[in-house]
Amino acid sequence: MSMKWVIVALATTMLAGPALAAGPAAGGPDQATVEANKNKKEWMSQGGEREEALTLKPNKDNGRDVYEVCSACHMPEGWGLVDGTFPQLAGQHRSVIIKQLADIRDGHRDNPTMYPFALPSEIGGTQAIADVSEYIAGLKMNPQNGQGEGTDLELGAKLYKDNCVRCHGEAGEGDAAKFYPRIQAQHYEYLIRQYRWIKEGKRRNSNPEMVEQIKNFTDKDTKAVLDYVSRLKPPADLVAPAGWKNPDFQ
User: Fold this and answer.
1) pLDDT confidence band for 25 (50 / 70 / 90)
2) What CATH number is given to the structural domain containing 63?
3) Rounded mean pLDDT of 165-176?
4) Contact at 8 Å (CB) between 134 and 63?
């Protein structure tokens, strides 16, 4: 069995059971810092790996090598799974990827499935975050992402216009400078899960403005707006041809 599929098996096991106990994260946040952050709700922590990684010149070749660990779950193309078990990462803003990786590593975002694979001992230190984020941001996006049922798109469009455009943009393009993620063409089921976690307070690094914005959304509202979001189209130059395979992992 290749190392890639060992990682897949381990990740699948972790989805079904308790998270692995994490050891010291040499070269990154120490365990005391991680534990101290586990009860914090903080959209934008100060300092740390996020700020440092943003200043580093990325090495895309190393980013490709680091991404091999990620590809076991997020797929070689960065498209995740259409059923939303793993999100599409391809084409995401580099700054957003850096923020989320740093938040997972320092305990600000709960992700027990991903945490062991994001450790410095697994993928490298802060430079590795800068490198792999550059690589992922350059991957072309899935032309056939998972979508909802399409039964309430008029309501979804209205909710999106009234509540989401200011941060995520007219077409779901996000804002790299403000760390607002690209949500266009993201898998519907993944969006649903993250939305619910944000409302429940489980995703502790959520933007508090968004938490407030969606707190009164009904299940019908949530499904409608995220179905609409899943159908927002990225610019054509960011999208891969149907059936594309990443040649870096062939």
Assistant:
1) very low
2) 1.10.760.10
3) 98
4) yes
If asked whether residues 106 and 174 sit together in one domain, one would say no
> Is 245 inside any structural domain?
no
pLDDT over 50 at 211, yes or no: yes
Cα angle value 126/131/133 (rounded, 5°): 95
Which amino acid would we find at residue 236?
A
pTM above 0.85, yes or no: yes
**Residue 88, SS3 per DSSP:** coil
Which residue range forms the structural domain that includes residue 207? 153-238
82 with 173, same domain: the answer is: no
In whole angstroms, what is the distance from residue 4 CA to residue 69 CA?
Answer: 7
- CA-CA distance, 85 to 87, in Å (whole number)? 7
Q: Which residue has the tokens 């998972």?
A: 146
Tokens linked to 33: 């810092």
Closest residue by Cα to residue 204 from 114, 112, 109: 109
Integer Cα distance of 131 and 180 in angstroms:
20
Task: Identify the pLDDT of residue 5.
Answer: 41
How many angstroms separate the Cα of 195 from the Cα of each of 161, 188, 200, 218, 244?
Answer: 17, 10, 9, 12, 29
The reported pLDDT for the residue numbered 235 is 97
Q: Tell me, yes or no, whether 244 lies in a domain.
A: no
Quick one: 10 exposed, middle or buried, by C-beta within 10 A (0-12, 13-18, 19+)?
Answer: middle
- Tens digit of pLDDT for each residue in 69-124? 999 999 999 999 999 999 999 999 999 999 999 999 999 999 989 999 999 999 99
